[in-house]
Write a structure and sequence with these properties.
Blueprint (H helix, E strand, L loop, with lengths): L1 H35 L4 H48 L5 H19 L13 H20 L7 H17 L4 H16 L4 H10 L3 H15 L7 H13 L5 H23 L1 H10 L8 H14 L2 H6 L4 H19 L5
């Protein structure tokens, strides 16, 4: 139901923008028709073109406003504060008024630039902050891969896919991938514990980011198809260091263990279900595992939550992309080994 509500809100906003654009286009069309005394077929042509033009203009303005809304608010607040300052200090000279507005509006504008699209205050060290968070997340995953004493081939493959997605997120820069790989290999064998990395990650992350990395730990723990005792213990204990609710263990246990137990028998007993998986991955049973793997990575990259969120799309589309990403991942996991 929540998804339908989000879609409804998104469509309502887009509809209002289209209606406003249509009004603008209609106003312009009315002026043109009246000025040039047009009639007949030309009136319809002018109205249609003007309405389309109006909708396009309003849509473009709306998209820009979404991107720069905090800067627009900063300018408005700056003008209000500037007017108050001019009145309070009784500034009457033209240059005095001009520089008062310049300094106050400029200051508010610069401060507003520090907010991201979601209204969160971004520090000047944002890039370093994000890099630290990324490396700590990779280190957490590295520790989890070796928590049972060995790194399985499935875990290695999953990590390789993760590094590919990170590389794609940063514009396909292979240096980023190599750096992340080095961080992974270093953390995997260093003397720090997974709990130390979890505590450090929590200090630079919000609640949603901590839960996201916790789910990654579940994925890596279940990559080989089994949840070992040491993995269960770690997944329980790490919750406290990430400052997450202990109930999340049961949530993800039912999500991943129930799915893992049923997945093989479900897909192997139903030819139609397996065909559906090939369809989701846009492959065929005749394709090699390498071809299927490439198709999976391409689709996973297209629907990856980080990539979708970076485009500033409505929340409803982000939710849809998350569900699609999970569907793609499950379809790939169901592929029979060749």
């Amino acid at each position: 139901m929540d998804l339908y509500i989000l879609f409804g809100v998104a469509l309502m906003i887009e509809g209002l923008m289209a209606l406003l654009g249509a009004f603008l286009g209609g106003f312009c069309a009315n002026m043109i028709v009246g000025y040039y005394h047009l009639s007949g077929f030309l009136v319809w042509v002018v109205w249609i073109l003007c309405i389309l033009f109006g909708i396009g203009i309003i849509s473009a303005i709306y998209e820009k406003f979404k991107e720069y809304k905090y800067r627009v608010v900063g300018i408005i607040v700056g003008f209000i504060l500037g007017s108050l300052a001019v009145g309070f200090f009784n500034i009457s000279s033209g240059m005095g008024v001009f520089f008062t507005y310049i300094f106050i509006v400029g200051g508010c504008f610069e401060y507003a630039k520090k907010f991201d699209k979601k209204g969160r205050l971004v520090s000047e060290e944002k890039n370093d902050y994000q890099v630290d968070q990324l490396f700590l997340g990779i280190s957490l995953v590295a520790k989890m891969t070796k928590i049972d004493g060995r790194v399985s081939s499935q875990e290695t493959e999953w990590v390789s896919g993760l590094l590919d997605m990170i590389c794609e997120h940063y514009g396909g820069d292979q240096k980023i991938r190599e750096t992340c790989k080095n961080v992974f290999n270093s953390a995997k064998d260093d003397n720090k514990t997974i709990y130390q990395y979890a505590k450090e990650y929590q200090q630079v992350s919000n609640h949603e980011e901590c839960e996201a990395v916790y789910e990654d730990l579940w994925v890596i723990a279940m990559a080989d198809g089994e949840l070992h005792g040491i993995e269960q213990e770690t997944l329980r204990n790490v919750l406290g260091y990430l400052r997450l609710d202990s109930g999340l263990y049961e949530k993800y246990f039912h999500k991943y263990c129930s799915y893992q137990n049923n997945k093989k028998s479900y897909y192997e007993s139903s030819d139609s279900s397996l065909e559906k998986c090939y369809e989701i991955l846009k492959c065929s049973p005749e394709d090699s595992m390498d071809t299927i793997k490439k198709a999976y990575r391409k689709l996973a990259s297209e629907y990856h939550p980080d990539k979708i969120q970076s485009k500033g799309l409505p929340e409803a589309f982000v939710i849809f992309a998350n569900e699609k990403f999970k569907e793609i991942s499950h379809a790939y996991e169901a592929m029979p080994m060749k």
